[in-house]
Write a structure and sequence with these properties.
Layout lengths: L3 H10 L6 E5 L12 E2 L9 E2 L3 E4 L9 E9 L13 E5 L11 E4 L3 E4 L4 E4 L9 E2 L10 E3 L7 H9 L4 E5 L3 E7 L3 E2 L10 E2 L2 H11 L3 E8 L3 H14 L2 E5 L9 H9 E7 L2 E2 L3 E8 L5 E7 L3 H19 L9 E6 L3 E2 L6 E10 L5 E5 L8 H4 L4 E5 L4 E2 L4 E6 L2
Parallel strand pairs: 5-6, 13-16, 13-17, 14-15, 17-21, 19-24, 22-25
Antiparallel strand pairs: 1-12, 2-11, 3-10, 4-6, 4-7, 5-9, 8-9, 18-20, 20-21, 22-28, 23-27, 24-25, 24-26, 26-28
Helix pairs in contact: 1-6, 3-6, 4-5
Length: about 400
């Protein structure tokens, strides 16, 4: 058996970042910038009001309370051409341009409308500059907003839109082929015959690929026919950036997946010192154009398939997209219950429910069933607890945990 760190290093060494591409900002969400982004406009583009109220000359309200003539109104999206003079005020809404002559805004809460709005009583003096947003207060044209490696979040999209940067250069999203094999898998909802089972890994893995930020491509369930599977894998390699399969990677198995990949790809079949997900395969398949795409051969047991994806495939896919954080968040958690195991030379990954305790730390409690085939219990887990080889830990002990949220 090999250590998980060795398997991870081997996988990551063969998953280089993909090419860059220019995309509209709405299509770039979740991807990593591949170039510096420079603001091309000021934000805000003009001096505007930070509140609803009245634009005034601060000198006119220094001896408040005072009454002023209301000579106009300006809403957001409009503007006033009137130049404010002594004794005048203009009603103004948040975000509206401040009229010439005004140097402050009085909040509406500090005023009283008089004569049907023709006049206003100002109860509070304000200093020059009060409640004004200056041009370029947020961003000045020519400044760098974001550097390479920045993930385009919704907030980043909002900033880019605000300065009219409508297109950005990013490392493109990985297209990932996902497929399962087996004549025993039923996908159409028909009654099961003896020996048949419902397909589940394909459905799960499509979701995990999408959750990793990549684009899953459903290649369906392929029958146990070597020629059909070989054609499907070659087509997937020509159309996608990576391939994820499940099943047929155990030592000694003669499975269609193993038989075919051994012939058409450069594979490494591994037995990793972990539980679950001991069997794992990784290799490179020619894309038909002179390049290769990574192939992740995950175990067939559903829990093993999930854990294997999290440990090896997910970080590799995120590395291919040049995302800065390829791993899930990891914390030193508190065991809320004893976590027992027996020495076997392996690292155990216990599926657990994690939450914050009154002490502000993350506490973890194992889900009920830990079998590699028991997906129902695992589906409720939001953490993987790492138990080193040995007898486990007692309640209250610290344990490393990977958060799946």
């Amino acid at each position: 058996m090999i250590e998980p760190a060795e398997a991870r290093a081997h996988v990551l060494a063969h998953c280089a970042p993909l090419a860059t591409v220019a995309l509209p900002i709405v299509e770039a969400r979740g991807l990593a910038l591949a170039a510096h982004v420079i603001a091309v406009e000021d934000v805000p583009p003009f001096v505007n009001s930070a509140v609803d109220g009245y634009a005034v000359r601060s000198a006119d309200v220094a001896a408040s309370p005072v009454e002023l003539a209301v000579v106009g109104e300006v809403a957001a999206g409009a503007h006033s051409t009137h130049v404010l003079t002594a004794g005048e005020a203009i009603r103004i809404m948040t975000g509206a341009p401040v009229p010439d002559g005004a140097d402050a805004i009085v909040m509406v809460e500090d005023t009283t409308r008089l004569d049907g709005g023709a006049r206003v009583r100002v109860a509070q003096a304000v200093a020059a500059g009060a409640s004004l947003r200056g041009r370029g207060d947020d961003v000045r044209a020519g400044t760098e907003l974001f550097g390479p490696g920045t993930v385009v979040t919704p907030a980043v999209c909002g900033v880019l839109a605000s300065v009219n940067n409508r297109t950005v250069t990013v490392t493109r999203r990985a297209r990932v082929a996902v497929l399962s094999t087996g004549d025993e898998l039923v996908t159409d909802g028909s009654p099961l015959q003896l020996g048949q089972i419902r397909e589940s890994n394909l459905t799960m893995l499509l979701g995990l690929v999408a959750e990793a930020g990549a684009e899953p491509v459903d290649y369906g369930v392929v029958t146990d026919d070597e020629d059909v599977l070989a054609d499907t894998l070659r087509r997937a390699a020509s159309e996608c950036d990576a391939i994820v399969t499940s099943g047929g990677v155990s030592m000694g198995d003669y499975d269609v997946v193993k038989a075919v990949l051994s012939k058409i790809a450069d594979m490494r079949w591994m037995q990793i010192a972990i539980k679950p997900a001991k069997p794992f395969a990784f290799g490179l398949l020619d894309d038909g154009g002179g390049a290769t795409v990574p192939v992740f051969g995950l175990p067939g047991n559903p829990v093993s398939s999930l854990v294997s994806f999290e440990l090896f495939a997910r970080p590799a896919l995120r590395q291919m997209m040049a995302l800065p954080n390829i791993d899930r968040p990891q914390v030193l958690a508190v065991a809320a219950a004893p976590l027992r195991r027996r020495p076997d030379g392996k690292t155990h990954y216990v599926r657990a429910v994690a939450g914050f305790g009154e002490d502000g730390r993350v506490h973890v409690r194992p889900v009920g069933a830990q079998g590699s085939h028991q997906l129902v219990a695992t589906s409720m887990a939001n953490a993987l607890v790492t138990l080193a080889d040995g007898d486990g830990v007692d309640a209250g002990d610290d344990v490393p945990a990977t958060l799946l949220w």
